[in-house]
């Protein structure tokens, strides 16, 4: 069916929708939609004079487009010419389209201020994404990822973008000597997973006995045995890559670890019969291993199966048994496995910007009992005979923290979010829960003698502190961009909750600084491993917050001391993070993306100190990777800096990483248009961006669908 012709009043020279960065004085005063032209459509319709004399405080003064009058509007044309004659030359600019003409004198004398030798691009909504666009640093990061992080394109769709696993033979594998197996077991339970303890150590030790005994006696495989063997092999794989005397970058260590993983996969693929708890344990261990190998897409696919197997066994529901014997080992393992899976679900959702699998309304499982493995027997749980802290206290509180994080993701990052006041109230509620959580563990988390503790407690101390500060970042970072382009005077006039928002921003920045300090300490003490996926992800999130704050303070002409402090801390943390870099790892990708954001922050900081150079900051020295470190200078026009800084925030507001503020929350926003504001990307179809996290973590092609490149 043919659609009726569009009314002439809605045509704009047969061009795509135009972004309006400035409204005329009359439309601005009445908060009406304005076309941003001279004269605008509203003034033409009412016959009023159209002027652009009001003060403009949002960066570089934009140029006003000269409207092309339709035939029969000679009076309006004279009015526009008269107004134009009183304007400065910098405001004279004409649109060029298929059926539009540019005045002869304007073509050479007044080129667009955002002209660039690079070709202009637009996304699928028609927005400009060329070199001076705020999204351009994402495009540059993506190009560098393609250049420096070469990944094969012939990989399955479920693992595309992942780092390749070393080749390993899964059909034939020699078990390690028994003394080495015992050392691997000890290393796993002491170091590998300090707060994600979903295995029972005495039980796993008995499985190792059975495994070696069956191999020596050449016994056949009985039902349920393959799951136990898969768990044992994954314990070996995790422990092997975290050994003290193991060079994490050496091919021998990685291949050996990958061989155990491949053998575990082979055991699980041959499983038959009903689903068993060992099937879930082995696959959950594989998910954590894949993250340590920078294979998050593979992990995401496998975790979907793992979570549904756990729900098949009813692990998300509490068992109520009034009569009959209870196997306390199995009961505790069900709790442990579920809450570790729940925690991983939250982190995968936050990192990838994708929905969670577990929903709080469907869960009534109890938390694990605070009892060491040696005290948990099949028929009873023995009371502790020691006054020392239980190993299971930290896993319990990590599970409780995961519940708070799950609620934060639902309220602050969900599709259906409330108003600005509702988000402030939600942040206050979740912030109070985080404070209470911290107070309950303050005696441990604020300890001043951490180095005197056992290795397991040292690891628990570090992991819980990092997880807590990252939870604060998740909760408060949306507010950093809420009023990105407004000064303090405007905020106090337009936002009754500005005092609370200011406090949230301070807490978020303190959390980012704390994470940077912990990363610095780990590197100084040589305790940072290339397999610490969670630690690397926390560091990436914190550094990004510091750089964005530098850009924001520079845009608001903020304190130069704060700008310098955050920039210096971010750059130092970036160097520390780069020291963990290995080929095609998450860290390698993090550094590429962070470098582009660092360049934007450096330019913004230079704006507050002295006039910027005509080129971008030259290079940034990294601790291990030559190719990424020498990124080289790139042309960057000084007159593009202000616009670019503002659009960086707006593009990030449209991502899942930084949830966009609602249109009604923006000062001066009116239905259908904005006064002096760039349109919010969330209202322009960009709310589905997976953000910086997804760009750096999930692969190299996450931005491709946004831009029309003319190919298939």
UniProtKB/TrEMBL annotation:
Cellular compartments per GO CC: nucleus
Positions of region (Disordered): 69-88, 102-121
Span of domain Zn(2)-C6 fungal-type: 23-52
SUPFAM superfamilies per the UniProt record, alphabetical: Zn2/Cys6 DNA-binding domain (SSF57701)
InterPro entries: Stress_Response_Reg, XnlR_reg_dom, Zn2-C6_fun-type_DNA-bd_sf, Zn2Cys6_DnaBD
Subcellular location: Nucleus
Main location group: nucleus
Superkingdom of origin organism: Eukaryota
CDD domains: fungal_TF_MHR (cd12148), GAL4 (cd00067)
Keywords attached to this entry: DNA-binding, Membrane, Metal-binding, Nucleus, Transcription, Transcription regulation, Transmembrane, Transmembrane helix
An example Gene Ontology biological process: positive regulation of transcription by RNA polymerase II
Single GO term (MF): sequence-specific DNA binding
TM helices/strands, residue ranges: 528-548
Matches recorded under PANTHER family: THIAMINE REPRESSIBLE GENES REGULATORY PROTEIN THI5, ZN(II)2CYS6 TRANSCRIPTION FACTOR (EUROFUNG)
Entry protein name: Zn(II)2Cys6 transcription factor
Higher taxonomy: Eukaryota, Fungi, Dikarya, Ascomycota, Pezizomycotina
